[in-house]
Amino acid sequence: MVFEAPLDPKKQYVFGSHPHGVISYVSQIIAGATGLGIEAHYPGLVVRGVTLPAAFIVPFFRDYILAMGCLSCDCNSIRRILSDRHHRLHQSLLVVVGGAEESMLAHDDTADLVLLKRRGFVREAIRAGCDLVPVYNFNENSIYRLAPNQPGTLVHRFESTLKSLFGFTILIFHGRNIFFTPYRAKLVSVVGKPIPVQQNCDPSEAEIQHYHNLYVNELTRLYRKNRPKYAPGCADIRFIA
């Protein structure tokens, strides 16, 4: 992990993690692994990952994500965690912003993100007065290979249908062997500079858009600054939606 600016363990943050990748491998590590993730670098900073509510009804997988400290991404869960009234500890959130739609774009050496229409995490950060922090996980898209799923293909129709029905999808992908061993790649997670946010319990659309624009600009700067060092063969960042 690389931090562009120090974090204050006594503060709360809303981290946006990009890209989603096939299985959000790096995001699971930096939010769910106490010895490797953000908490290891800043003791006292508690980071909770969020995922779809449907994940909590899947047998065994539910226990896995609970063991990592994940919670549902619905607004009630988020607001409860970010509220000091319910917890003694200041807890921060890590949101894989692009979701299932972005996972379908996780081809090797690409940086195609679904972000421009994702504004809910910004709204919740304003309501709680938490600084926004962009995180880019270089080479996340290189550890697995997606089957060709361009629009119009059978694979794309299959993945899109599942996403529209359930909110998540089942990707067709492969690793180095039949055990889905990941391909070798140097994984580097770069944590950007916190974007100060002024608390407002009822933010206007203009205010949400203002902080969203700051976030997009900071993420773009972070990616273009660090790409030559950590992923020189990767394409430039693109915002698909």
TrEMBL record:
Its EC number is 2.3.1.20. One of its GO terms (biological process) is glycerol metabolic process. Pathway: Glycerolipid metabolism; triacylglycerol biosynthesis; Lipid metabolism. It catalyses: an acyl-CoA + a 1,2-diacyl-sn-glycerol = a triacyl-sn-glycerol + CoA. One of its GO terms (cellular component) is endoplasmic reticulum membrane. It is an enzyme of class 2 (transferase). PANTHER family: ACYLTRANSFERASE, DIACYLGLYCEROL O-ACYLTRANSFERASE. Belongs to the diacylglycerol acyltransferase family. This is diacylglycerol O-acyltransferase.
